[in-house]
Amino acid sequence: MKIKFLKAYNGDSIHISFKEGSKNRNILIDGGMCATYMQKNKKGNIEFGELKDIIDLIKERKEIIDLLILTHVDDDHIGGILKWFENDESAYSLIGKVWFNSGRLISEHFKVEEIKENLIILNPSETTDTSIGQGIIFEDYIEEKDIWDRKLIKNNVEFKYLGLVFKILSPSTDKLKLLLKKWEEEYPDSIYTAAEKNDYDMTLSEHIEVDKFKEDTKEHNGSSIAIVITYNEKNIVFLGDAHPTVVANSLKYFKYTIENPLNAELVKISHHGSKANSSIEMINLINTKKYVISTNGDRHAHPNKQFLGRLASINNDCEIYFNYPEQIKTIFLEQDYKDFPNFKPLVMNNNEISI
After folding, report:
1. How far is the C-alpha of 10 from the C-alpha of 335, rounded, in Å?
2. Burial of 146 (0-12, 13-18, 19+ CB in 10 A)
3. How many CB atoms lie within 10 A of CB 120?
4. By three-state DSSP, how is residue 282 classified?
5. Which helix H or strand E contains 87, and what residues bound it?
6. Does the pTM exceed 0.85?
7. N or C terminus of the chain: which is more exposed, having fewer CB within 10 Å?
């Protein structure tokens, strides 16, 4: 199995390729920001991103995306997928199944009236050649094309698919219920830039001394799909933007404890290394040597060094991989390497890890 962490700006987009018997399989978890697929540069010309490259590669190999997982509705996770659908009328033909807890599906599950404002609209760009009309509802489109696996994905469920075992760690029913209202749009970057300064001027040791955990309360993040995928008896954990209490409770539901933690080859850290999305309890319930943080750090000041200090205090002999490795020099101070010589920030080869 090969896991590639695409350069998705401040978002997530993860391509998993593996064999099921003699058949090549592909799973795509999220699509990052819109620019992960395409954007206009300062000169007004279209530039394609790494998501477009992966899609083209799958087409070239005459394969499909056997499973597309949209963890939640935040633009830094779903934006690139929407941009692809808006600009490629044949996108649906490259997808086997979609897992997506849409507003419509959540409303149906709780037997309440659908909130029209929460439906996702496809609006193709005028600069591209596509026959998809303006204002197509995404939920209608993936249902009509018979690629939506129209079931709610929620925690404490285990099943087999594509020769893999999936354990769902998040979201919980309670977290999904919180989305039964009109969704608020995210604030623009400028507000976060003013409000959220990075905490990289302190050492890891200094952060450990003052560390106080306060859990994320953002409802969209709480609705995020988080999963353990087991391949050839090896566990890989993808935490999306999930809330740590839900993840910890689910791990305990699956009979993991601090004394008998889940052994994992790799953990994709929740919410781009936010200090609010990885508690000591959750970290201790997963035994691993490898962590991945996905973000370019341009928004929300992620990863928080306070989280990295927390991780170093628990697992100071581990590897932390960044899909934007230039962040390493920005975050880690000379004293950090002296205090924690075995706590290793590392660069992935081609942003890819083999399991």
Report:
1. 27
2. exposed
3. 21
4. helix
5. helix 75-87
6. yes
7. C
Length of the chain: 355
Q: Which two tokens stand for residue 333?
A: 């101070």
Look at strands 290-293 and 157-161 and give their pairing. Answer: unpaired
What is the separation of C-alpha 188 from the centre of its chain, rounded to a whole number of angstroms?
A: 20
Radius of gyration of the chain (CA): 20
Phi-psi label, residue 130: left if phi above 0, alpha if psi -120 to 50, beta otherwise:
beta
What residues have CB less than 8 Å from 309, skipping those under 6 apart?
A: 204, 205, 206, 207, 208, 211
Query: Which of these, 174, 247, 244, 239, lies nearest to 215 by C-alpha position?
Result: 244
Chain centroid to CA 118: 21
Q: Express each pLDDT in 88-147 by its tens digit.
A: 989 999 999 999 999 999 999 999 999 998 999 988 765 555 545 567 899 999 999 999
Cα–Cα separations (whole angstroms), residue 110 to 69, 182, 218: 22, 15, 20
Give the Å distances, CA to CA, from 31 to 82, 240, 284, 344.
8, 12, 29, 28
Residues 6+ apart with CB under 8 A from 262: 228, 235, 237, 251, 254, 256, 285, 286, 287
